[in-house]
Each structure stands twice: as C-alpha cells, then as structure tokens.
Design brief:
Elements (H helix, E strand, L loop, with lengths): L2 E3 L1 H9 L9 E4 L9 E2 L3 E2 L5 H11 L5 E5 L6 H16 L10 E5 L2 H9 L6 E2 L3 H4 L5
Protein name: Rhodanese-like domain-containing protein
GO molecular function, one term: protein tyrosine phosphatase activity
Pfam families: Rhodanese
Length: 138
C-alpha cells in the first residue's frame, strides 16, 4: 500500500530547501488538464503515456528518496501511476541499484487541492491561470 502526503507536508518539503529531482520528485500525471498551473520543480508525465515512460523514470529516480505522484484530484490517475511506478521499480532495479530505499507517496486531494491553498505562493505553484480555475457557477 502506498501512503499519502498532505499539501501542507509537501509545501514544507519544497520550502525546506531540498532539491527537486535529487531529494524528492513530484510527478504530475495530468493529461490535457495540466494547463492552469503546476507544482514548482515537478515533472509532467501524462497518464496516457506513463506506461511507455515508467522504466526511464525508475532509472532516473533510482537514488531519489521520495517520489510523490498526483493528478487533478489524486483519486485515479495519481494512485495508479504510483502503483505502477512502485511495481516497475521492484522489477527493474536490483537491491544493489539504489543507494537507499525510495518512499512513494500520493498527494492527497491532488493539484486541485494544492492550488486551492497555495496558488498565490510562487515558490510552490507556477504557471497558475485564474481563468482555468474560475468556477462556472460564480
């Protein structure tokens, strides 16, 4: 079972001065809904192409101690990608390929929840577009 991380916990990691792609990696598996903003330092690996790219991601992150997955809400695509990544990692890497174990987590409430709280913090969210997130009900 893969665990979850809250938006506040992720914000704390980003603000701590840790280096993305070295100390942690945020993997955003949104597809066309990637428009409108993203987490600073994260990489976009659309879910539609994730299976074709997961082996390379595993190799590139072999020494990254924390990999966090999310999609818009982290209800389907994010958790599925995390599971596939974890299984692929076990199949691709031998015990000696990594210097330390990698923790795989899912961002609770996805980017929707994260941007709702942190959209005005340029240290955490970039490319935020208010028009994308404007409610049709307002």
């Amino acid at each position: 079972m893969t665990g979850y991380i809250s938006g506040d916990e992720l914000a704390e990691i980003i603000r701590s001065g840790k280096t993305p792609k070295k100390d942690y990696l945020v993997v955003d598996v949104r597809d066309d809904d990637y428009a409108g903003g993203n987490i600073v330092g994260g990489v976009n690996m659309p879910s539609k192409k994730f299976l074709m790219n997961v082996d390379q991601l595993v190799k590139e992150t072999r020494d990254v101690p924390l990999v966090i997955f999310h999609c818009a809400l982290s209800q389907l695509r994010g958790p599925k990608a995390a599971r596939i990544y974890k299984e692929t990692r076990q199949n691709v890497l031998s015990e000696t390929d990594s210097t330390s174990p990698t923790k795989v987590l899912i961002l609770r409430d996805g980017f929707t929840g994260f941007q709702d709280k942190f959209k005005d913090d340029a240290f955490l969210v970039e490319n935020w577009d208010k028009d994308v997130w404007a409610s049709d009900w307002s």
